[in-house]
Amino acid sequence: MRWLVSFSVLLGAATHGVQAASGTVWATPHDAYSSSVGVLGCKVNTDRIAYWPGSIDCTNLCVSLSYQGRTVKLLRVDQSQGAHDVSYDAWNYLYTGYSATEKPTAGGATAMEYSDVDISECADLIHTDDGKLPLSAANSMNFLASCLGQKDSWVGNNHVLYNILDPICSWGFDEACKLDWPNANQAACPHQLGTPNALTSAPVWNIRYPTGQKVKAGTSEVMSPADAKNAAYRSSFGGATIGLLTTFVSLWLLRWM
Fold it and tell me: Where are the transmembrane segments (predicted)?
């Protein structure tokens, strides 16, 4: 496996870091969500993420990966040191035809075909109400500023900032913030920006390799049936929508009390 990764790195260096729009990569499974640019895992499908070499682009964020007639779309929101890692569930499905939670499989680097595709093909992987990329208001500003500086970049025109400190959504407040760019380079949030408040309402769940167990990111806690139901509900309706529904129900109850 090491020589394959080394070959990939050497090839990238030989082409001065320019990646083709399509080709073959040696895909490897990755079982812990992360994002080098602060994309919030509680608001995207963390089972469909690409962890690839090279910096994250402001427009080219969606990758199609295929193997033996099966294809998945992946959000490219994290940078690896050389390997072409993909979410374990995506790798397992491509390799076997089954989800990693259904029939988990162990394995390593596998030659798969990829192509960069339009971001619209990854729309169902982003779980914000308006389909905008969810970023950490406290820790995504360098990336966002670079995208705002690029005319008509997709991220520059399609982002939403949240007062959440980390990609696995364990600190902060699950609330949207506003950025008065370019007059300000810091977002304004309902609560103070960057407050390390323990956030428990929107956990990120990793699928552990090679067991297929769902485990809360940053812990060893295995998902319970109740957690599974809540995760499915959030995935179906989106975090912001749940908040609106909760507010509506509360107001309705107050009206009739």
Answer: 231-254
